[in-house]
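Folded chain entry
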Amino acid sequence: MSARILVVDDEDILIRCYRRILDEGGYQVDYARSGRDALKSAAASQFDLIVLDYLMPEMNGMEVLQRLKELHSDVRVIMVTGLDQIDTEIRAKELGVFDYLAKPFDPDDLKRAVERALVK
């Protein structure tokens, strides 16, 4: 059975980018366009990995990460952000993020991060 991944991003162009990159891996990928939708999906289903954008309206990725970890403490999360702030990365790691990618990222970097995250 292939891994289940939830991608959370509010930008259509990035959703299309994730589709192109992750479809090649044969994963089961669901998409959420907001933090609230991501939390609903995570409450209803079990995911092996969540790829989470940091900067989103209403609820930022850090808030979503904290709530996701309360729901499923063992879920692995890759946070993606266009912000280059070391304190954001440190806080994300304190909350249990598996990996942290800066935008724009190379598709191969995302593929490698996903592969590492799915090794258990």
User: Anything to note?
Assistant: The longest strand covers residues 76-81. The beta strands are 4-8, 28-32, 49-53, 76-81, 99-102.
